[in-house]
Amino acid sequence: MQTHNLGYPRIGGKRELKKACENYWSGQITQEELVKVGWDIRIRNWKCQQKAGIDLIPSNDFSFYDQVLDMSLAVGAVPERYHDVILNQKNTDLDLYFAMARGYQKEGLDITAMEMTKWFDTNYHYIVPEFHKNQKFRLFSSKALNEFLVAREAGINSKPVLIGPVSYLLLGKEKESGFERLDLIENLLPVYLEIIRELEDAGTEWIQFDEPFLAMELNQKAQKAYLKVYHQIRKSFPHIKILLATYFGPLKENLNLTLNLPVCALHVDLSRCPEQLDEILNQLPDKISLSLGLVDGRNIWKNPFQRSLQIIQKVRARLDDNRILIAPSSSLLHVPLDLNEESQNSGRLAEIKPWLAFAQQKLEELGQIKKIALAPEETQHQRLLQENINAIENRKTSRLIRNESLKEKVNAVISSEVRRNNPFSQRTTTQRKALNLPLFPSTTIGSFPQTKEVRQWRSDFKKGRITRGQYTTLIKKEIASTIQKQEALDLDVLVHGEFERNDMVEYFGEQLEGFAFTLHGWVQSYGSRCVKPPILFGDIDRPKPMTVAWTSYAQSLTNKWVKGMLTGPVTLLQWSFVRDDQPRSETCLQLGLAIQREVKDLEAAGIAIIQIDEPALREGMPLRKELQKEYLDWAIKAFRIAYAGVNDATQIHTHMCYSEFNDVLESIALMDADVITIECSRSQMELLNAFADFEYPNAIGPGVYDIHSPRIPSKEEMIYLMKKAIQVIPVDKLWINPDCGLKTRNWSETEKALQSMVAAARELRNEYTPS
User: Fold this and answer.
1) Cα 62 from Cα 39, distance rounded (Å)
2) Which domain holds residue 622?
């Protein structure tokens, strides 16, 4: 019985990769210094896994930005618009790589970034491959080989990880009509064979192919592609051991297909889908070993050893130990690195810490589970098991997690119908009179640049270096300055800037009962963007207002409208590590009730426009279609609970980004927000076609520039995008705004971009306002 890992967090224990990348982009360090940071992290990660007793340690799971982008570079899937970046002799392959991720605007070139979207149902964002008819591929990068060789020099015969060829194509997007991306498999496969040849010649024994699409519905073309690809790989490399990794869902109707692929081992997610085990065992061919995804790679709760041992016992009754591997359910990319880094923490985290396991602890759990399974009679192993049982039972019976009065409120809400007093067609007339906004109202999504000084104030306040009064004075000064800047830009609807907020989820969780927080529990969201998800461990309540004072202060400084800015219940749920001892729907409804109290207080304070962000709505949807309606029913209900009871004149906004919405537009319409702002710039407004085809009834603010890229779009570019929107959406339903919050940008580029955006709105207004 072997232990293995599918992937490991790559940002470093203290976010070394984030800081190094950002320093490189700003010219503060050289490429050589950045590359050294990357190798230091990789070697440290390999050594940690080796120390934890992992038998098969992954390589090529590290990335400077995104593993899908790595694969695009490896196979030469570089869009034509970046060729000028390659031709510039000053640029390296790494510069090209970052240009694809972030855009490129220097030396006379102005090139947009590639699209970005969510990795299945996670908050991780990947860079979407772009495909054209008859596209050719070539071996462009030998990253997988290089990592394997360096790992071997470090004393580790690693297991290289590759995104499987079929999943890689399915993750991408056709950029022209007349073909399907799976048609490219004939062109792509030879490059994969070259990569495998390099690895075989270097002496690799195992290669892990990640094929998460095997856990989703597949058409006949995809099924045939899987058979073709893996039979060709086996024919070309009869001695390479292939571990086929599936995760995030059950194989279901793809089980027969998967078991007919000529692979040496199959990994299945038994954390999310333990029910698939019996059918797999009944059909597993003698030649295939089984990797059991026992330890949850998506959440931070301690593994219940008894449950894992029962699964192993069942499998051992059917398979020899040498055909059994045990592993996390998925890559550990989605959890923080090491719980031991939280030794300085106090408060709720200190109380619940015995219930938790981060990436390093999850690997230790694997080793302990293996020891107990193979020698349960040993005293030391019995002690390990009993300690685990005690921790699981302590959490189950703790008074920290229960609030019986909330249960009654949630039960009352479950059976009730939640809707606005009047439909949008009536509300919009009331709101136009009350708000008196022009055609194409301009606004931002909420946050403004969080400078080094702002972050320092927050740190100083938390560490007691400045008083609450001093901190409040500093934040108010920043809010006042930001209101002045927005008025000078002539934006129509303003925001207070969110300078008091560390993160759009963490900030609210800190003020809600039922949450705990880490000091160093960072997780990569995309590129150098890291978040610190709160731990939602118990029943939720809102003891006092969370945003009213800051928003009211901002509104007092201007005659223009200032939006109240809230994070919605579904996003608070999705972007936290959520309790697993009750249905997620019940937890989400509790969150909806908490946000509702904040909405009512904002409205009572005279805030006429309230934005309830739900960027995670699509992300939270189950991958399997048969489960999606149930999820959408309770998710939409939780959102509607959040604004229940507001007046018709109060305008409710929501924001969504970096997801495909085509299959959930009916549910988005049922949210009944007066205005939805969505990311559209990277896709060149392509997303709006679905809204038009659906005849989406409410107002829309399509993002006209990409805030995740440092490039500054021109007024003409924004007008061009808005005119594409005008072709499919009525002009009186269109707002103009960036595609997301501006927290990560600097003031110089922000003001220049917003100047262009306001100028674009003004020009459109002149052209389309009836005479």
Assistant:
1) 9
2) 439-768
Question: If you search the block for the tokens 């699409």, which residue do you land on?
Answer: 213
Q: Grade residue 462 by pLDDT with cuts at 50, 70 and 90.
A: confident
Output the CA angle 24-28-30, nearest 5 degrees.
Answer: 55
Beta carbons of 211 and 249 less than 8 angstroms apart: no
> Domain boundary residue among 399, 415, 447?
399
Tell me which DSSP letter residue 606 carries: T
Distance CA(250)–CA(242), nearest Å, equals 20
Residues 657, 719: one domain? yes
> Which DSSP symbol is given to 63?
-
| DSSP H or E stretch at residue 763 | helix 747-768
Please check whether residue 387 lies inside any domain of the structure: yes
Per-residue pLDDT tens digits for 614-651: 989 988 889 988 999 999 999 999 999 999 999 999 99
Return the residue matching tokens 């007046």. Answer: 647
Q: Are 308 and 369 in contact (CB under 8 A)?
A: yes
My answer on whether 473 and 585 are in the same domain is: yes
Q: Are residues 665 and 599 in the same domain?
A: yes
User: Of the ranges 104-118, 692-706, 728-742, which one carries the lowest mean pLDDT score?
Assistant: 692-706
Rounded Cα distance between 572 and 579, Å, is 13
Q: Which residue has the tokens 């998925």?
A: 330
- The count of other CB atoms within 10 Å of the CB of residue 117 is 21
The Cα–Cα gap between 566 and 742 comes to 16
Do both 457 and 378 map to the same domain? no
Collapse the DSSP code of 475 into the 3-class scheme (helix H, G, I; strand E, B; otherwise coil) and give the result: helix
Alpha-carbon radius of gyration of the chain = 26
Catalytic machinery residues: 708
Question: Dihedral sign, CA of 262, 267, 270, 273?
Answer: negative
Beta bridge partners of 269: 293
**Do 332 and 452 lie in a common domain?**
no
Please give the angle made by the CA atoms of 68, 74 and 79, to the nearest 5 degrees: 75
pTM: 0.90
Q: What are phi and psi of 12, to 5 degrees?
A: 95, 155
Q: 642 and 495, same structural domain?
A: yes
**Position 167 in a domain:** yes
Smallest Cα–Cα separation from 13: which of 238, 336, 294, 248?
Answer: 336
What gap in Å lies between CA 40 and CA 29, rounded to an integer? 16
pLDDT bin (cut points 50, 70, 90) of residue 534 is very high
